[in-house]
Amino acid sequence: MKALVSIITPLYNSEAFIEGTINSILSQTYTNWELFLIDDFSTDSTVQIANTFANTYPNIIVLKNKTNCGAAVSRNKGINAAKGNFIAFLDADDLWKPNKLEVQIKFMLTNNCEVSYSSYEQIDEAGRPLNKLVKALPRLTYNKYLKTNYIGNLTGMYNAKTLGKITAPNLRKRQDWLLWLSAIKKSSKPALGIQESLAYYRIRSDSISSNKLALLKYNYWVYKKGLGFSTLKSLYRMLIFVREQLFVKSKLIVSIR
């Protein structure tokens, strides 16, 4: 029997995008999955849309927070409920290509890999292609990944059977980076990148990636609060972060036509 994949999708006021996100999971060629939709006290019709799918598909489960707790709490609630051998993540405004799970599971089994991720493409708020590909580095060690966040969370997957369940620290932003740092540190092997593009990342005007100053602040807190580094060490790591962004990571975003 094929391994079960648990998919974790936090929701917050996601009515504009969640239907497309869920449909991209329903379209997967790999069919042995369960989907946890964790609503973070939405005030729009997100929960009603999620419940419509859950009432139709028994492998879609809706969980609800009683107050607005943030993405980390929501992700961890889904992770704790998950039963899968593998755990993957898809945010409520992003999309998977139909072969995403099939390609990734085969890759991980073939390469005896415990943490994997892939290349992905960028789309705008309306779902139109921006003709930009974010290329996955072929491999990531803990020290390399400490320099900057190279894993697109919508492409990441880890083997919960061998690593156990790895959760995110309770930070409002960038907790996914810390989760993958923990996974790579716990694994005896580097994380491996699939060069094929397997997903679509939606660029939104209100995202932190569109606000460079806010992004620097949240990345500083990864080092300071998430990893417990001293102020001096956190500032030093931020210098490395900026250098890595300018001279390495920026070159991984390429134009496609």
Taking all Cα atoms into account, the compactness measure Rg is: 17 Å
Oligomer category = single chain
Total number of helices: 9
Instruction: Sketch the topology as an H/E string, one letter per element.
Output: EHEHEHEEHEEEHEHHEHHE
Helical fraction equals 25-40%
Give the termini separation.
39 Å
Indicate the low-confidence ranges by residue numbers: none
Number of strands: 11
Q: What percentage of the residues does DSSP assign to strands (E)?
A: 15-25%
Shape: globular
> What is the mean pLDDT?
95
The assigned structural class equals alpha/beta
**Biggest pleated sheet:** 11 strands, mixed
Explain the overall architecture.
The protein is an alpha/beta fold and 257 residues long. The protein contains nine helices and eleven strands. Strands 1, 2, 3, 4, 5, 6, 7, 8, 9, 10 and 11 form an eleven-stranded mixed β-sheet that branches. Strand 1 (5-11), helix 1 and strand 2 form a beta-alpha-beta unit. The longest helix is centred in the C-terminal third of the chain and has 17 residues, at 231-247.
Task: Spell out the key features of this protein.
37% helix; 257 residues; alpha/beta; 11 strands; eleven-stranded mixed β-sheet; 9 helices
Question: In brief, what are we looking at here?
Answer:
The protein has about 260 residues and is an alpha/beta fold.
Describe how the helices and strands are arranged:
Layout: E1 5-11, H1 18-26, E2 33-39, H2 46-56, E3 60-64, H3 71-81, E4 86-89, E5 95-96, H4 100-110, E6 115-123, E7 129-134, E8 139-140, H5 142-147, E9 157-159, H6 160-163, H7 175-186, E10 191-202, H8 212-226, H9 231-247, E11 253-255
Parallel strand pairs: 1-2, 1-4, 2-3, 6-10
Antiparallel strand pairs: 4-9, 5-10, 6-7, 6-9, 7-11, 8-10
